[in-house]
Amino acid sequence: MADKKTTAHSHNKKRNVGLIYEFLVRYMTRKIIENDTNSADKALKILKSRYKKGTALYKEFRLFNSIIATTTSSEGIASRILREAKRAALRHDSTQLNREKSLLIREINHTLNDAEFYKQKVPEYKLYATIQSLLNDWKAPTEDSVIRIAEYEDDVVCWLMKEKAAGDIDDSFKGIDHFVVKLMTEKLNKKYAESMNTQQHKIIQLYALHNNEATQKELIKELDNVRNHSKTLLENYHSSDKNNSYVVQKLNKIQSAVSDIELTEFTDHKISTFLMLAHLNEELAAVKSKTK
After folding, report:
1. How far apart, in Å, do the first and last CA atoms of the chain sit?
2. Residues 158 and 35 in one domain
3. Which of 6, 7, 193, 229 sits at a 20 to 30 Å CA gap from 262?
4. Would you say residue 2 has pLDDT above 50?
5. What value does the mean pLDDT take over residues 233-251?
6. Mean pLDDT score, 199-212
7. In this structure, is residue 274 part of a structural domain?
8. 0.70 exceeded by the pTM?
């Protein structure tokens, strides 16, 4: 990537959708290493709320990330990708995007209040600056930006044709996966003193990543398995211990409550219920094996 004065002069890293994403991820990494999970969790909440699907930030980030992640050996294809990226950028709501960026900056400043946040090192900083500056110039071109746009487009075409090493770039939100899993695990572990079984750990990991459509389907399938297994175990316990009216009454309430849970939206409380249910299943299975 060429070191051009135009890139440094026109670029505002605080409004760079790709850099802020990277800063948040790296901030979480640092805080986890420092064992400051509270600060890491704050950064995670900012990232997940501000970059959530449907926002203008999310749309620009997806476009930004697609440029970062794409590789082609054909200059013609690279040029076509750039043209499509420009069309997509021009469809974005610039007013809403700028408003969301301002709110993001304000939340970072007020919530994290870290003087080092914007000073974090990103290996491909110049590339990120070039892509964001190009997106900005496409949306609001001026007479002064004509040459700059040509330079940036040339740089981006070169990047698209560059062979990337494994690990050079991440898919959208993939970079925070293991941090999310760690934070969610710690968060839910605080609610449960006992050691979690394999199924409970799996539920936590899937819940941590459930914004991904494929993972959400897997989470729903896993929770359904827990619910169906629970229903079978409860019915078996009910039939084998009909004389214990108190226990039977409690089990009926549990079964009714579990049956009514909708697997459309997920909250900590709902997941906690299924974690307890998975633990109950383990205990009921143990009781069943002892009575055989």
Report:
1. 70
2. yes
3. 193
4. no
5. 67
6. 73
7. yes
8. no
